[in-house]
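Anyone up for a design puzzle?
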């Protein structure tokens, strides 16, 4: 008999392959042969100049590969839930069964009451240990939201997580000297603003910036590096599938 969890494992393997592909593309983009020079840019509408780290537009492949990973991770959960539903007799093979993720603990209860009436008590108890709702496991909730969002709009990569070495930069204007330790990302201009400086400032710097990518206006990362979040989410989902299969075996379904 074919293992009913085989297909969910194929999808999570595909998601992990996408994550590795994204990692390669990010490294190629940020650490290729084209350097990212510092520049001084004047803004006519403002008196100060701004010290910038100039960037290139991010490739569309960042979006397509990430969306592929997200879709595969969500499908992994649905296929795993369908596998235990069918093997336990709660659903017929032709019936649908989606892994329930609620917008709150109360909403999860409603999803269980309305959509899991024929499920064994042991399976529902296991489901609750995953805390698949907003305020429980927020990454699972973010995955659910992002999958729905991807059906109607494109995931946007215009926010960066930035690390730096050899800080601070030194900026002097006459007898005054300031040390720059912070960064701001300008989404509209695709630039990292290091700081505003006076017109007569003398700039000395020895800095190396380390880039990684984050999602913009997304429930997913909250400023965390996207690769870190995707890897963590993949581990959570693999653990869920492992537990679903172990439960199915323990109860004699497979």
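Challenge accepted. My sequence:
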């Amino acid at each position: 008999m074919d293992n009913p969890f085989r297909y969910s494992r194929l999808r999570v393997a595909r998601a992990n392959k996408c994550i590795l592909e994204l990692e390669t593309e990010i490294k190629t983009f940020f650490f290729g042969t084209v350097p990212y020079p510092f520049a001084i840019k004047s803004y006519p509408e403002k008196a100060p100049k701004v010290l910038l780290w100039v960037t290139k537009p991010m490739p569309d492949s960042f979006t397509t590969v990430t969306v592929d990973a997200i879709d595969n991770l969500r499908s992994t959960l649905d296929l795993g839930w369908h596998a235990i539903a069918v093997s336990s007799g709660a659903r017929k093979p032709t019936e649908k069964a989606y892994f329930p993720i609620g917008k709150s603990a109360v909403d999860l209860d409603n999803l269980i009451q309305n959509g899991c009436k024929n499920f064994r008590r042991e399976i529902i108890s296991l489901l609750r240990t995953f805390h698949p709702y907003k305020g429980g496991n927020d990454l699972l909730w973010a995955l659910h939201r992002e999958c729905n969002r991807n059906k109607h709009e494109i995931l946007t990569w215009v926010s960066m997580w930035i690390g730096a070495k050899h800080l601070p930069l030194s900026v002097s204007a006459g007898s005054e000297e300031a040390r720059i330790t912070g960064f701001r990302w300008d989404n509209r201009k695709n630039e990292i603003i290091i700081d505003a400086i006076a017109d007569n400032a003398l700039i000395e710097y020895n800095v190396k910036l380390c880039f990684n990518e984050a999602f913009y206006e997304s429930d997913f990362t909250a400023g965390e590096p996207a690769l870190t979040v995707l890897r963590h989410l993949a581990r959570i989902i693999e653990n869920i599938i492992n537990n679903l299969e172990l439960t199915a075996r323990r109860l004699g379904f497979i």
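A detail worth pointing out: The longest helix spans residues 61-88.
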